[in-house]
Amino acid sequence: MCRWLPTSDPAADLIASLDHQPLLVVLRSETPLASVNTISQLASLGLRHIEIAWQSIPSWIQECRDLISSFPELRLGAASVHSLEGLIAAREAGFRYVVSPVLDPELCRLAGPDLVLVPGVMTPTEVWRARGLGCRLVKLFPATVLGPHYWRSLKAPLGDPLPFCIAAGGLGPEDVAPWRAAGVDAVTLGSRLGDGQGLRQVLAQFSSP
After folding, report:
1. Are 28 and 57 in contact (CB under 8 A)?
2. Number of folded domains in the chain?
3. Is pLDDT of 3 > 60?
4. Quick check: 122 pLDDT over 70?
5. What confidence tens digit (pLDDT) does each residue in 24-65 have?
6. Is there a domain that residue 2 lies in?
7. Where in the sequence is the domain holding 39, given as residue range(s)?
8. Does 164 fall in a domain?
9. 3-state helix vs strand vs coil in the chain, percent to 5
10. Cα dihedral sign for 155, 149, 130, 89?
11. Contact at 8 Å (CB) between 41 and 14?
């Protein structure tokens, strides 16, 4: 398996990795370590990008450290980070990127250059602000409300280059190809992950980073 060797530009690392395999999966469980078997199964299918949902529980940091140590070949990130507490915990756990459902300029500032913050955006104004804040990746959320052609429609009025776009929210394996064809750069799967067969078929289309 390919081990992730980070460089001095974590945002460029993440974009390059997602260019190879434009797919992420978000896991939400009672505790991070409760996802070990699921992570192992996803890794065996060839998935490389997995987000662990932030939880305000005492064991979250250490359990995430254990996951990062146990799966060095994966690009693990923190999901649903929308507070300073979550950002600090993600940094202490050792994550290289965090994903938020919202655009919070203060969180973008506090993340700094060493921790990639992927903010959630929905409106043209939020995309414009995220770009102005220096966010090189954004999460288009909730994607199903906006439709696959929404992102491409922003290019002419906002101008290039738009940030690297990760569509998330209510998408399943069958949505990856049409959303990618419509202009988004990567797709996040969550509750509609399915039994693994659809994911296996999607992963077969991409090379592993």
Report:
1. no
2. 1
3. no
4. yes
5. 999 999 999 999 999 999 999 999 999 999 999 999 999 999
6. no
7. 10-203
8. yes
9. 45, 15, 40
10. negative
11. no
d(CA 63, CA 69): 10
- The sign of the CA dihedral 181, 186, 189, 195 is positive
Both structure tokens of 198: 């659809």
pTM greater than 0.90 (yes/no):
yes
Task: Identify the pLDDT of residue 12.
Answer: 96
Q: Count how many residues are written for the chain.
A: 209
Degrees, nearest 5: CA angle 118-11-110: 55
**Tokens 């804040």, residue?**
133
**Cβ proximity of 172 and 194 under 8 Å:** yes
Q: Note every long-range contact of 153-160, with CB atoms under 8 Å and residues 24 or more positions apart, other chains counting.
A: 154/124, 154/127, 155/183, 157/124, 158/124, 158/127, 158/128, 158/131
Give the H or E element holding residue 114: none
Q: Decide if 98 contacts 78 (C-beta within 8 A).
A: yes
196: left (phi over 0), alpha (psi -120 to 50) or beta: left
What rounded mean pLDDT belongs to the chain? 94
Instruction: Indicate which CATH number applies to the domain containing 149.
Output: 3.20.20.70
CA proximity to 119, closest of 193, 177, 127, 22: 127
Both tokens assigned to 46? 């060839």
| Closest to 64 measured CA to CA, from 74, 54, 73 | 54
